[in-house]
Design a protein that fits this description.
Blueprint (H helix, E strand, L loop, with lengths): L3 H4 L10 E6 L3 E6 L1 H11 L2 H13 L4 H8 L7 H20 L2
Antiparallel strand pairs: 1-2
Helix pairs in contact: 2-3, 2-4, 2-5, 3-5, 4-5
């Protein structure tokens, strides 16, 4: 189980960062909102993370404008990391839409 402080690293902190699902009464689960996940991946900005974001945009699961809004409240390490993530989002969105 994650502590409250680790959840606060996402743009939409706490349980709002997760989307729940329930199957019958016995099973339930939560998964991270894909836009919040995209923000974290763009902050890390490794090649596989860029690919994940780009494919999410191509599939229509990730909306660049939503990611951009979430970036305004995300706790980046510094302005340099925030600027790099924003530039990467712009590149991934352009690449994803260029080949559709």
């Amino acid at each position: 189980m994650q502590s409250a402080s680790s959840w606060q690293r996402f743009p939409t902190a706490g349980k709002n960062a997760c989307i729940g699902w329930h199957i019958l009464k016995a099973s339930s689960g939560f998964y991270l909102d894909p836009h919040d996940c995209a923000v974290a991946k763009l902050a890390r900005n490794e090649r596989r993370d860029q690919h994940w974001v780009r494919q999410g945009i191509r599939a229509g699961i990730i909306k660049p404008d939503v990611v951009e809004r979430r970036m305004t409240t995300a706790p980046f390490l510094d302005a340099r990391e925030r600027n790099r993530a924003a530039a990467s989002l712009e590149i991934q969105a352009a690449w994803a839409t260029a080949f559709q």
